[in-house]
Each structure stands twice: as C-alpha cells, then as structure tokens.
Specification:
Blueprint lengths: L1 H13 L1 H5 L1 E7 L5 E7 L14 H21 L12 H49 L59 E5 L3 E5 L8 E5 L12 E5 L5 E7 L2 H6 L4 E9 L5 E3 L2 E5 L5 E6 L4 E7 L20 E5 L2 E6 L7 E7 L6 E10 L5 E5 L2 E5 L6 E9 L4 E10 L5 E7 L4 E6 L2 E10 L3
Antiparallel strand pairs: 1-2, 3-23, 4-23, 5-6, 6-7, 7-8, 9-10, 10-11, 11-12, 13-14, 14-15, 15-16, 17-18, 18-19, 19-20, 21-22, 22-23
C-alpha cells in the first residue's frame, strides 16, 4: 500500500495535465499474485529512445535514409525533385552526380582517341612487316615467253596502307552511244599468231580496291619482263587524285587478290590518267598536266627517257567519253609500244603513233575517222586499234577497228561486258592473250579469241 501512496502523491505533484494522462490497472499474475500497473505520459519527451540510442543518432539515421533513397533514384535514372530550402546534402549530391557524368563523357572521348591510335599503329606495323618480307626475298628473274610470230601483213616500221588523293582533279563525261547487234563469234581461230578480234569472254575478277582512291586506275603485267621481275609480277596504280605516283607490285595474281604487295615504288613525277603501260622492264606513263611521255626503269628506279608527244592534246582536251583526263593512252601489243591520242589538226579524231620503247621517238603515225570523245576506251592487238562503245552499259560492244597495216578502218560489233558499269581502263597483254580492265573498283581480265572477221 505504501507504493500506491507514493504513486498518488506523484500524481498530485504533476498537476492537472498528469491527472488527465494517467491510468491505473490491477490484475492477477500467472502465479496468483495481485499486480498493480500504472502509466504516466511524460510532460517533456515526445518519444522514448530505444536502448543504446540517442536523439542525435536517430536524426542522423533519418538523414542517411533520405540520402540513400535519393542515390537509388539517381542511379535508376529517375528525375530528382526540387530540393527544399536547407537541403544542402541533396544539392551537393546532385553536383557530384553531374561532375561524374561529365567525367564519364570525357573518358569515352579519350577511349575513342586511343582506339584510333591503336588502329593506326596496327596498320603501320603491317606495312613494316610487308616491307621486311620484301627485303628478305626479292622476286627472282623469270624467262619471258617467246614472242608471238607476226602476220606477214602486220606493220613493221623499223602490271593497304598510304597515298594522297586530296583535291581530286578528274572529269566525268556522259557518252551517248548507239549500240549495234553483235554477229556470231564463230569463225576460224588463229591461236598461234595474229588475227582479228572475234570474241571476248566474260570478265574474271581478281581484286576489288579498298577505298575511293581505287575507283579507277590501271593494272598490268609486263609481257617481256626483265630482271629483277618476272612476267608473273602484277603492277597496280590507283589513279584517283591530283598526286598519283605510287606503283604497287605483287609477285603474282594470287598475291594481288590477297592484297599483299611485295614492292612499292614512288614515281619521281606525278602521273595523269589511266593510260600507263608496262613493257620490257619499264613503266610508260604521261606526266601530269603535260603531253610529256616518261619511261621509268624498274631496275634503277629512275626515269630513263622522256619526250613530248608532238601536238597531242592533254588534261581534258581529247579524253575518252568517261573523262579522267585520258587524252593520251599508251598500249602494248605484238608489235610493240603505241600511243593513242588526238590533236587539234585531227579535230578530235583518234591518232595512233608507234613509239620507240627505248627513247620514245615516234616511228609512225596514223589518223582514224572516229572521234576519241565518242568512245569509252581503246586498245591495240596485232597492229589494229579497237574501241569500246560504252563504259557504263553492262552489255556493250567493241564497235570499231582500224588496221595500221592497211590504213583502213571499219565498224564491227564484238560483244563486251562492263559488269560493274564504270570501266575506266582497257589494255591488251600479248603474252597472256588477255584484256585487262578496271571496272568501278574491280580489276578484271577477259580472255580473247583472234580469228578472221566475216
């Protein structure tokens, strides 16, 4: 009873508020004893702290919970609500997040830059590897095939990396050509010697150029190769651009198709057009912005001869119909080295000159009756000029022949295919008895048949 008395005394001391918030309960316990229970609201504390806690710790836990929720929302991509006054911790976290995102963007840029540098280094290492292979073993001399005997009526007057293709200077013209139906190619064939062109096979693809620098160009094999290169050696020049001077050499057709050059030469003077050719260990080409012909010796890797082609048009005056500044086209056949071009005197008609392969002197000249700008390309076989009607039509014809032995020309219609519809170079190789062509990035060849035109 003394405990109850103390309790009531405490209640009286607390006053009216304590009296209104006090409760008393009496009940028996499980052991049969009487137990008194009372509750009194604290006049100062809003809540009771848990064991081992303090008001400061609880407040800190509350703020940490708020920060954790905010971080989770930011990581999840949710929008952050407007921060109220006094929420400096949230504002600082937003600033840190923005800084982190900016640093991430900068790191992405640095990664892309490093990736590009790695690619450049890999390309350079591949070039160095190829150069090392070239130095370890240079191609051996191979015996050239015997000359094809000449017809009695023939005229006898005496062939990944770095380049510059900026500021491409070339022109593309549109040719309107009326094609004629082609007769049957059947006829007597002359396999051993010369004859008329009566049939051209479907093109065989050997390689596709890697980039825009190879949209058009010239590729060839020397029919009478000299040391240190053999007749299987293949030569290629990408002709797009105003600074064309790189000559790539491949040991054979297989290496060309694989894209592994064993020799890269830098020509002393820039080349123009796709009219270059290879003959007796020298590259013959037209010097840029001039009518000058150049003989570049492959053994000494120097210019061995140069000479102006008299009165020849150049740099877009009398090109083929496709353009490309193809005013002067050099060609090889069973009779030797030829130049196909035009002059002001000929009024744009094709002029043919046979050249001395040693000093480039003109040995004989013929003027035809077909305009150079009206045909897509031309080549020589057995002293005869042949012209291609269109460079874009997939099914066109070889539409004209001029025989230097008789000084007579005539219209013909031998079927010819431009499989990729942009044929910028057609040349004949008398040793292989093939036409080599460059058709819209593709290096292709055609087997031919010589016989007698009906």
């Amino acid at each position: 009873m003394w405990f109850l008395a103390v309790f009531w005394a405490s209640c009286l001391l607390m006053g009216t508020h304590a009296q209104s918030s006090t409760s008393f309960r009496r009940a028996n316990t499980g052991s049969g004893r009487c137990q008194y229970t009372f509750t009194v609201d604290s006049p100062t504390e809003a809540s009771c702290p848990s064991a081992g806690s303090s008001p400061e710790m609880e407040a800190l836990k509350s703020r940490l919970g708020l920060l954790e929720a905010l971080v989770a929302r930011l990581v999840g991509g949710e929008a952050v609500p407007e921060l109220s006054q006094g929420s400096r911790p949230q504002s600082g976290l937003q600033d840190a997040y923005n800084q982190m995102m900016g640093e991430n963007t900068q790191l992405q840029r640095e990664k892309q830059k490093l990736d590009r540098q790695v690619q450049d280094l890999q390309q350079r290492m591949e070039e160095l590897r190829q150069e090392a292979e070239r130095l370890r073993s240079r191609p051996c001399m191979q015996q050239p095939p015997p000359r094809v005997p000449q017809n009695d009526n023939s005229f006898r007057p005496g062939s990944d990396p770095s380049w510059h293709y900026e500021n491409p200077g070339y022109q593309e013209l549109t040719a309107v050509v009326t094609e004629v139906s082609a007769p049957s190619p059947e006829g007597p064939a002359d396999i051993s010697g010369c004859g008329d062109l009566v049939w051209v096979q479907e093109p065989e693809v050997h390689r596709k150029a890697d980039n825009i620098a190879g949209k058009y160009g010239v590729w060839m094999q020397d029919p009478e190769a000299k040391e240190p290169y053999g007749t299987e050696m293949v030569w290629r020049i990408d002709a797009v651009g105003s600074e064309v001077r790189q000559l790539f050499g491949y040991e054979n057709m297989d290496q060309l198709s694989r894209g592994f050059p064993t020799k890269v030469l830098l020509l002393p003077e820039f080349m123009e057009s796709t009219g270059a050719t290879m003959y007796r260990g020298s590259l013959y080409y037209q010097r840029r912005l001039s009518r000058t012909l150049v003989r570049y010796d492959l053994l000494s890797e120097n210019i061995a001869a140069r000479r102006d082609l008299p009165h020849a048009g150049f740099h877009g005056q009398f090109p083929y119909s496709w353009g490309g500044y193809t005013d002067i086209d050099l060609a090889i056949d069973e009779n030797g080295l030829w130049a196909i071009y035009s002059t002001n005197k000929a009024k744009g008609a094709i002029v043919i000159s046979q050249l001395d392969p040693h000093n480039l002197e003109v040995k004989g000249t013929w003027e035809t009756k077909i305009r150079k700008t009206s045909v897509a390309n031309s080549f020589m076989i057995c002293g005869k000029l042949y012209t291609v009607a269109s460079y874009t039509s997939p099914n066109t014809t070889i539409n004209y022949m001029y025989d230097t032995a008789t000084s007579q020309g005539k219209t013909i219609a031998v079927p010819f295919k431009n499989r990729y519809r942009y044929n910028s170079m057609v040349d004949y190789n008398p040793a292989q008895r093939k036409l080599y062509a460059w058709d819209n990035f593709y290096m292709v060849s055609y087997n031919v048949r010589l016989g007698k035109q009906e």
